[in-house]
Design goal:
Blueprint lengths: L2 H15 L1 E3 H8 L5 H18 L2 H5 E3 L3 E4 L7 H10 L12 H4 L10 H26 L6 H14 L4 H13 L3 H19 L5 H19 L11 H4 L8 E4 L3 E3 L6 H18 L3 E2 L2 H4 L8 H9 L3 E10 L2 E10 L4 E11 L3 H28 L9 H12 L4 H17 L4 H16 L6 H18 L4 H15 L2 H14 L4 H6 L1 H6 L3 H14 L7 H13 L3 H14 L4 H13 L3 H14 L5 H7 L5 H13 L5
Parallel strand pairs: 4-6, 4-7, 5-7
Antiparallel strand pairs: 1-3, 2-3, 7-8, 8-9
Helix pairs in contact: 2-3, 5-7, 7-8, 8-9, 9-10, 9-11, 10-11, 13-16, 16-17, 17-18, 17-19, 18-19, 19-20, 19-21, 20-21, 21-22, 25-26, 26-27, 26-28, 27-28, 28-29, 28-31, 30-31
């Protein structure tokens, strides 16, 4: 008698009928055996259930023809979920949308064909009940709009083609003042309708979207009263937090040879997906701009109607078996090209190359876009900056790694996370600030600062569960400081799933591989990350992490080269100065090693090799010992 069949029996009674004929149960669950054996198996299952679980002595009522499960003795999780929704609370299980329904009796379809049909039906029954409860909660006027929109979005996740739920969510986002979110909900719904049903939303839904767009345009054009600048940022700014908005236009075909339309759209879709996953900036759905792409003034229309500030555009040309793609990033209001690149790929490799090109494009444009936004933010008084602009201004100070500017940045970031507690990027940068303070040897309370790193990253993930950078950084810190390697690896896997082509996410997953003996995998991953963000002004950290991987692999010359490249970008990064000193000592570049060591002592006068080695994350004691010997050989005090 398998436990699965006993669970299947209880589930059928608990979730559906509570009472059923014995013959029905026997035929449903033991359909693969003769009737007599099926009835015998049912008797044995009922006997074992009552003997093994005393609570079922009262709950299971059995006579010659019927089996009954008294609902008064039951707690059914799906019913608890429904009751929570009716009480005006959104259970954590429903934040994953349809996956909750699919989890009901997951894997029990293998019991038999008839039982599988019943599982499908019961999932549909509970899906309908939960959907009705979520829709009712979204329409309740006694609940705050911010909670009601969560109910509406959960309903839309459960039924992605539900127009009523879509309109609920759009109206509630508008009520919260976040018209951009309302339009994003519409765009995602439009794309779902188009891809799955090959049709457009109803006129009622389209009219609502048009009304929201019109109101958004009028709000942007309306003069704002001077007193509004005195309102606290968290009250004055929409949930977009001032993130710049990017539009990605289809690649325009060039040349005499024809190009399939889907190839041009594929690159756009890849870029949009990757930017959306990184979450640094907002990106407009291709569906929302498809009808505008042929207009000569498309950029200006995007700026006026959808608030876009940047646009990615380009051309695609074919010559025999080779495709040439020219891609550029422009700032709409200034008409300036911020970045341009040409890519070349063989026709046979084009489909696979699209993902690689999209990764490179996104990792190249982000630093250029952030730099343009930073220039604009520097012209604005600090008290009038958006959350996004506050983070940019603080990061500029953080990465100088000069103590006074660094401390100022910490104060600014503390204010930012207090004013905008739901802006995940601010929480991630705040965690990074604490991480650098520990690494630089500036922390007055190392254990306390490590706890702060984890706190801010957990806060970020409360707001954006699929934030790849937060997941990867949290994994890095759990591995480095807490030695919780299994947990760290799970976080790394989730991070790479959430943001697979993001250089910064890749970078954070690399050092633990090097420290745990997987040097070649670390080198491959970090070289890829470094290639993706080679123009990033913050690349000194990527160079350093790559130097760690080379050092762990015993490739000391390459470790020294990467370390020196990092030091040229930022000569105040003490973690890198230490490792570079050791690598240079290993290849007998004594003068350079001593120079690095002198810089370490100037920045961190209390540094001692023995303390570092005692807590160093190299899991191999021999590597820790070698690192300490080379640091001492470079001239650092033991």
């Amino acid at each position: 008698m398998t436990a699965r069949k006993k669970v299947a029996l209880l589930a059928y009674l608990a979730l559906d009928r509570h009472s059923a004929p014995r013959d029905l149960l026997a035929g449903l669950i033991w359909a693969d055996v003769p009737d007599a054996k099926a009835r015998s198996s049912l008797r044995q299952a009922l006997s074992e259930l009552r003997s093994q679980h005393p609570a079922l002595n009262k709950a299971l009522l059995i006579d010659r023809t019927m089996v009954t499960l008294d609902p008064a003795h039951l707690i059914v999780e799906t019913d608890v979920i429904l009751e929570e929704v009716r009480q005006g609370r959104l259970p954590a299980a429903l934040r994953g949308g349809g996956e909750t329904i699919n989890d009901i009796l997951y894997g029990f379809e293998s019991i038999g064909a008839r039982y599988a049909d019943w599982v499908h039906d019961i999932r549909k029954t509970y899906s309908d009940r939960i959907l009705t409860a979520l829709s009712d909660a979204a329409s309740r006027k006694d609940l705050p709009a911010s909670l009601r929109i969560e109910f509406a979005e959960a309903a839309l996740s459960l039924d992605p083609l539900g127009e009523i739920q879509c309109r609920y969510a759009m109206r509630l986002a508008t009520e919260l003042g976040d018209m951009g979110k309302a339009l994003q909900i519409y765009a995602a719904f439009y794309a779902k309708m188009e891809s799955e049903l090959d049709m457009e939303p109803s006129l009622e839904t389209q009219d609502l979207a048009a009304e929201i767009k019109l109101n958004s345009t009028q709000t942007q054009m309306r003069p704002q009263p001077q007193a509004q600048a005195l309102v606290a940022p968290s009250a004055a700014l929409p949930r977009n937090h001032g993130r710049p908005i990017l539009a990605v236009l289809p690649m325009q075909p060039r040349g005499p040879e024809p190009i399939a339309e889907f190839l041009a759209e594929m690159l756009v879709d890849n870029i949009v997906m990757r930017v959306t996953r990184i979450r640094d900036i907002a990106v407009i759905s291709r569906v929302s701009i498809r009808h505008l792409s042929e207009r000569p003034d498309v950029a200006q229309v995007l700026q006026r109607d959808l608030g876009a500030r940047y646009v990615i555009s380009g051309t695609m040309r074919r010559e025999d078996d080779t495709y040439f793609l020219n891609v550029e990033l422009s700032k709409i209001d200034e008409g300036l090209i911020l970045w341009v690149e040409q890519y070349e790929t063989a026709a046979a490799d084009l489909t696979r190359a699209q993902s690689r090109i999209a990764d490179e494009v996104v990792n190249r444009i982000l630093p250029n876009l952030h730099l343009a936004e930073l220039r604009d933010a520097q012209l604005i008084e600090l008290e009038h900056l958006s959350a996004y602009q506050h983070v940019l201004r603080a990061q500029e100070l953080v990465y100088t790694l000069r103590r006074p500017q660094f401390e100022t940045a910490g104060t600014q970031l503390q204010e930012t996370v207090q004013n905008w507690p739901d802006f995940a990027p601010a929480q991630v940068v705040m965690a990074d600030w604490f991480s650098l303070r520990v690494g630089q040897g500036w922390s007055p309370d190392t254990a306390g600062d490590i706890a702060q790193i984890n706190k801010y990253l957990e806060n970020a993930l409360q707001n954006e569960r699929r934030n790849g950078r937060a997941l990867a950084m949290l994994g890095h810190n759990k591995a480095i400081y807490a030695r919780r390697h299994l947990e760290a690896n799970l976080l790394f896997e989730e991070a790479l799933s959430a943001a697979p082509g993001d250089a910064e996410t890749l970078m954070w997953t690399g050092p633990n591989l090097a420290f745990s003996g997987q040097q070649q995998e670390a080198i491959a991953r970090l070289e890829h990350a470094r290639a993706l963000n080679r123009n990033d002004p913050l690349g000194f950290r990527a160079d350093h992490f790559l130097a760690i991987a080379y050092f762990a692999a015993g490739q000391m010359e390459k470790a020294a080269q990467s370390g020196l490249a990092s030091a040229m970008r930022n000569g105040l990064y003490t973690s890198n100065l230490r490792l570079t000193a050791a690598a240079c000592a290993a290849i007998e570049q004594h003068e350079t090693a001593q120079d690095m060591a002198a810089r370490v002592m100037a920045l961190e006068p209390g540094f001692r090799v023995s303390r570092l080695v005692a807590s160093h994350p190299f899991r191999d004691p021999a590597k820790r010992a070698l690192y300490g010997e080379l640091l001492t050989a470079a001239g650092l005090p033991n």
